[in-house]
Amino acid sequence: MIARLVPGDLRLRLIAAFVLVACLSQLSHLPVAGAALAVLAVASLGRVPLRRLRHVEGFVLLLFVMLPFTLPGTPLLTLGPLEMSREGLARAALLACKVLASALVLLAFLGAVEPARLGAALHALRLPEPLVRIFALTPRYLALIRDEIRRLREAMRARGFRPGTNRHSWRSYGNLIGMVILRALDRARRVDEAMRCRGFTGRFPHAALPRPGLRDWRGVVLTAGLGVVLVLADRG
Amino acid sequence: MIPVVALSDLTVTRGGAAVLRGLSLRLGTRERLAIVGPNGAGKTTLLRCVVGLERPVAGRIALFGNACGGERDFRPFRPRIGFLFQDSDDQLFCPTVAEDVAFGPLNTGATAAGARARALEALEALGIAHLAERVTHRLSGGEKRLVCLAGLLAMRPEVLLLDEPTNGIDAENMARLRAALEAFDGAMILVSHDAGFVAGLATRAMLMRDGALVEAEIHDHPHLHSHPHLHPKG
Question: With contact defined as beta carbons under 8 Å apart, do B48 and B19 qualify?
């Protein structure tokens, strides 16, 4: 269902997702936020791999642990010196709905897009070149850096290292992190050199993207419309 | 005839120690020079000097007859000199093979369609057209090597600098690499510690020891030898 909303053109897709998330962030009533979450969850059913929501779940959980006990208001429950307030619980629920709804929007709109394509789209939207380049190159080299960490850790284990809570372990992990950063810097330097050898002078040769079609614009209008309706419902 | 690469009295130091000591070298238009030497002899540093990635403390570098000193001097010549890095992962930074091979032509002003055509042509010439849409970081070591080379050939260079071209390569891709290098119509510096591979391709050879070059002779003679090797059972 959400496929009808998502514009095919990546630039417009980024804009649409941005507008919708911006609208979601303005909601201040739990029923509206809850309804928004429900609508988005139903719409994106089968399109968004739900396990990817794990990345935000920790944050949502933290909200539920912290907010009810820190926001003053009508007490609901007393645990020793801690008091759980109705207002805090409501605020946590509101924020959770907004966070999850926003995450669903981002996953549905951009979850399956390759970072490099996203980089080209961000470039087309006139984002600063260095930011786009960092964004596009990070995923490519993250795998290599991860491999490097794995190899270093295996080599440590092979020499009998057993992590524990002691000075030796902390120092060893400190060295490991330092070494990974040094190697990443070295790698960055060599990648830059290899790019310069192939004639790179600081401007990424992104291919021009085709003009967005009518269907793409319709997606933006529908998505933005949904956002505006939500904000109006929240205000009214 | 003007040499494509001319180095004279090059000295490079690193951390106070000399890596290259007054090294001189001339590379002719069609010459294939093999430089063989142990690890740490300064072979990679020599190649880095040629494309201006390393600055000598003394000596002169001339590319195609033009003296080169700073980054600006080297820039216009880099597309004419293909430098194969020792570690393929340093070179392959685009998500797909076709995009990576097209990177060079795009930098030199080719259109998107033109760059793609040249990329596919380079891949075809190396016999790896089937890799075009593959993701670069999931390739095997040998495939990465050939894709890197395709990225250089797509720029139609006049000189190839190959730093340990046989690094991490398997037998099948080794044959493709050798065929591609034999077919390359230009000058070449092959740097390796694998004397067997480079000696077969080169027209001239030099030995590198402690930052200096000495002329060497390539000769081919039958050896009467025995060595252990493996065959499948049965």
Answer: no
Dihedral sign of CA atoms B73, B78, B81, B83 in order:
positive
Instruction: DSSP letter for A206, please.
Output: P
Supply the range of the domain harboring residue A32. Answer: 2-115+210-235
Whether residues B95 and A115 touch (CB distance < 8 A) is answered with yes
- In order of their start, the domains of chain B are 5-216 (3.40.50.300)
In terms of Cβ atoms closer than 10 Å to its own Cβ (0-12, 13-18, 19+), residue B153 is: buried
pLDDT, one tens digit per residue, over A47-96 is: 777 778 887 888 888 888 888 888 888 888 888 788 888 888 889 999 99
Instruction: Please state the pTM of the whole predicted model.
Output: 0.74
Are the Cβ atoms of A190 and B51 closer than 8 angstroms?
no
Number of folded domains that form chain A: 2
Residues A156 and A45 in one domain: no
Per the CB < 8 Å rule, is A191 touching B90? Answer: yes
Which pair of structure tokens corresponds to residue A151? 């190899």
- The closest CB to that of B93, out of A140, A196, A201, belongs to A140
Instruction: Kindly state whether residue A160 falls inside one of the protein's structural domains.
Output: yes
